[in-house]
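EI: anyone free to look at a 586-residue chain?
SC: sure, send it
EI:
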Amino acid sequence: MIHVKSFPLFLIFLCTCSTIQTAIRKLLFVGFDSTMSVGLRGPTNLFGHPTDKLLAKIDSELSQWNSEPTKPVTKISFGHFPLSFSAASDSGKTLRDIFLKHSLSAYLCGHLHTKFGKNLKRHHYLSNNLLTSQKFFQLNAHQNLSESRGNCSNGASAFKEFWEWEMGDWRKSRAMRILSIDRGFLSFVDIDFELGGKKTIILPTFPLDSRFMVKMSSAYQYECKSIDHSAYSTIRTLVFSSSTIASVVVRIYDSRPGNLNVVLESSMNKHDGGTFSRGDLYVAPWNFEAFEDPSPDRYWLQVEATDIAGRSTLTELRPFSINGLTAKLSWTWKEFVVMGCQWDALYYPILWSFYFCTFSILIIPKLMLAFSKKHYGYRNFIAKKSLINGIAWVFKEFYAVPLLWLGIAVYLFYLLLCPWVLGKVFTDGGEMGFMTFKGWVVKFNKIGKLDFIGVPDIMVVVLPHLFFVILPTILVTGALAVERGMYRQRFLSLSGKKEDDHIEENNGSRSRIGDSYWNGKSSTCIDKRWIRNIVLVASLAIFWKHFKSCRVLVKAYDINPFLHFPVYSLTMPVLLTYAIYKTRRV
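SC: here you go
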């Protein structure tokens, strides 16, 4: 029995390896640092950047016992960045490829810690039937696989898989993880010291939690009867306590009736065999075959330890599947965003999708309206309501604001062709560089081409500007133009009645439509321009978001917005102000 207290930390080495050998098993720990060799300033230092050299070194360290198959090997790797925030190397290889090649037991990482949720755990599996979408994102902690486990003649080595476990941090969250390796089974317990110190810590080591500790190979081994019965024949738990433990009791609950009923309650005995653990190992024999079930979360385990002072400590209820099935572990939307999305692969598809949709909105309707002989207006839409008439009217009003759509289109082209920001790139000051959507550029290489660094890290600047500044600006300016068109029609309708009564006679049907529409609350909203006031509030939110983004860049790169990124900092506020000014009157 081995247990390891682990803390997420900033690694200061390139790659290091530790090995432990027991009488029946070998343990291999490989840690590495995948930060860039040059220190970029935040916020564009979000990703790990493993090089081909580092990947080859990790591959070599994980392979060192492959030629000695006499003892099984448990391989564990640890680093700072989760795989969702790890970029591919220059050759296109990734950490995930290396880990799957060696079928790690687990990869432990930090970076995100517990800021985005408690279920930052992800199972990786090499599948020949992997869907294309799963290369970009995974919807929950377990991959949705379309292939079966195969037959028993394939061998367990056919499974290439590993668990990725994000860890809490000690510096800010005062969180600690205790990791246990029990005959090849990995389990852990997280301790949150912000909730207070604990006199007793309990870590069940077998059976495993079926939500985020069981691997697919476990189900195969159990189904094919290739398990070590001695490892399955006892329930085992580690107990760490500052006081003498008087008793340890394990309870198993059956959830099938709809509530939890105790089906097994047994005292656990302290194991006096040799151990390297500073905790005490308690065991209880059981008939594990009695708990076989096709449901991975029918049976639930709980351990209670009582010390000589009468203080009782209970573990959380945890589901288990003795036949190795995995229970569903769903992410919240925040956990999915940071753990389930492969941002290195998603950056360019998101970028080009935005540009395709935006240019389609700005240019295609303009061309269609220019060559269309049909008149699209607000009264035309009221007289004959349809989706096409409504969309055409909205775009006609938007294009009616002089130079607005052209200014937005030119700015989008500028962001593709020209630098966004000029600033001090590195943490130690030094050289100035400029940022494009492809990354930071500091100098040309030997053949005169640009060398880009910090990609996809620059997505934290690029994507928020596109989706939270430019896109809302297009929507808000369009809303301002449409509101002006509605107000103009209301104004002309009222003034027409006062100045020329015969207009009503000549255009009877149109006037009746207008009168019926403008009666009641609708006319009140238009007359007082409440819609415009609401849109102006949204405009203030855009101004504030853009101001905060510019302030972050000013502080991060020690620059002046009017000197080092005037186009980026001023274009959207100027266009939005221009739209507000042009739509203030009929």
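EI: DSSP finds 17 helices and 21 strands in the chain.
SC: 👍
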